[in-house]
Design a protein that fits this description.
Layout (H helix, E strand, L loop, with lengths): L7 H16 L5 H8 L3 H4 L1 H24 L1 H21 L3 H10 L5 H13 L2 H15 L1 H17 L2 H21 L11 H12 L2 H30 L5 H25 L5 H24 L5 H28 L5 H26 L5 H29 L1
Helix pairs in contact: 1-7, 1-8, 1-9, 1-10, 4-5, 4-6, 4-16, 5-6, 5-7, 5-10, 7-8, 7-16, 8-13, 8-15, 9-13, 12-13, 12-15, 12-16, 12-17, 13-15, 14-15, 14-17, 15-16, 15-17
Length: about 400
């Protein structure tokens, strides 16, 4: 008997809360550094350290869900996110805050396992379409999240962001309990067996090609997150609210790309969608660099380059995520978790690199250049995927 499908809105919100946990409070980072009387480098651990913890958790979440099921892992993760958010809200020193912030990483299960649920209930081409639909609606989260976070920070102080997280966690725990039935109908025998199955993925060149595509694609997004505030405030003098709109701009392109993926999947090959997505994400920032070098040095040009990366990611990520989980459908949860962990580790590196290099008068050029370079890695990976699939 096939599993009862959860409502699409549940999967959208599970993914959205994972994204919001990363980017909603970013416009308040400088405010938080002042509040705790620490440097920007220390408070930025709330971003980079969080991504590292999230990547490690994904290595565990995937196999756990393949063994015990998607439902109990999601419920436990949402409960932990709720408690950790309250801890962040109440923390009186930066180290206690950062400890609870790392525990918030459990919410990444929403993103990892919503993809696995889609793969449980749909074949690859239909999964790509569903992931595109989910991505179209979910893109509102990173688009509106920084805007909401900037408003909350300016109006009520930075802690309001973490009270909002706690309320979101409570809502998602209740919604998942009510709507999310178990979709993993062939659980594995043991947790150890799941880790022993990892070599099956490690030995697959196609798995690594998809991981490289995902890492290069998402790396461009994280590079923007790591440098947008630095460049926007330091070079263009933007306020937190303006930064919120600017950081959210990349998601406008992402929403359009996901919409196109949902409409074109089944009519245009997955490989072609990924290829054109990488073309947009690689050459859009290069065009922005050219325009700025010709004299139009302003934040609108920079954000236009970011939108082209978002558009490319919207075309690439749903198809690449469906592809990586189809390398071995029996290990869909593990593949989602492992590829997600590798992707976020790459994103953490991109964030740190951009934060270190994007300061000063050339920051906008550096930011766009790093986004283009990371997206170009994804373009090479798509060409590799095509070669491997033709060989098979």
């Amino acid at each position: 008997m096939p599993p009862r499908q959860p409502k699409l809105i549940t999967l959208i919100l599970l993914t959205a809360i994972s994204v919001l946990s990363l980017n909603m409070f970013l416009p308040a980072l400088a405010q938080m550094a002042v509040s705790f009387d620490v440097s920007y480098a220390v408070i930025s651990v709330a971003v980079g350290g969080y991504m590292i913890v999230s990547s490690v958790l994904q290595l565990i979440i995937g196999p756990l869900s393949d063994m015990y099921g998607r439902r109990p892992v999601i419920l436990g993760s949402m409960a932990l996110f709720l408690l950790a958010s309250l801890g962040c809200y109440l923390a009186e020193n930066v180290w206690l805050f950062l400890a609870f912030r790392m525990l918030q990483g459990a919410v990444i299960s929403g993103m990892v396992l919503s993809r696995a649920v889609v793969r449980d209930i749909a074949p690859p081409s239909e999964a790509a379409r569903l992931l595109g639909v989910i991505g179209t609606a979910m893109a509102l989260a990173p688009l509106l999240g920084p805007v909401l976070g900037g408003f909350l920070g300016e109006t009520f102080g930075w802690r309001a962001n973490f009270m909002a997280y706690a309320l979101m966690g409570a809502f998602m725990l209740a919604l998942s309990w009510r709507d999310l039935s178990e979709t993993n109908l062939t659980p594995s025998d043991s947790f150890t067996a799941q880790f022993r199955a990892y070599p099956e993925l490690f030995k697959s060149a196609l798995f690594w090609a998809y991981c490289l595509c995902l890492g290069g694609s998402v790396g461009g997004f994280y590079a923007f997150l790591g440098g947008a505030a630095l460049v926007g405030e330091g070079l263009f003098g933007l306020t937190p609210s303006q930064l919120g709109f600017g950081i959210g701009s990349i998601s406008a392109g992402f929403m359009l790309g996901n919409f196109l993926t949902g409409r074109l999947s089944g009519r245009v090959s997955m490989l072609r969608l990924m290829f054109w997505g990488r073309i947009s994400a690689t050459f859009g920032p290069l065009l922005a660099i050219t325009v700025m070098a010709l004299g139009a040095m302003n934040f609108w040009v920079m954000f236009a380059g970011a939108i082209s990366v978002g558009l490319g990611n919207g075309l690439t990520l749903p198809t690449a995520n469906a592809g990586v989980m189809s390398v071995n459908p029996r290990l869909a949860g593990s593949a989602s978790g492992l590829s997600g962990a590798l992707t976020i580790l790459g994103g953490a590196g991109a964030t740190a690199l951009t934060g270190a290099l994007a300061g000063g008068p050339l920051g906008a050029y550096v930011l766009m250049g790093l986004m283009s370079a990371s997206s170009g890695v994804g373009l090479l990976a798509v060409l590799w995927i095509g070669r491997l699939e033709r060989a098979q």
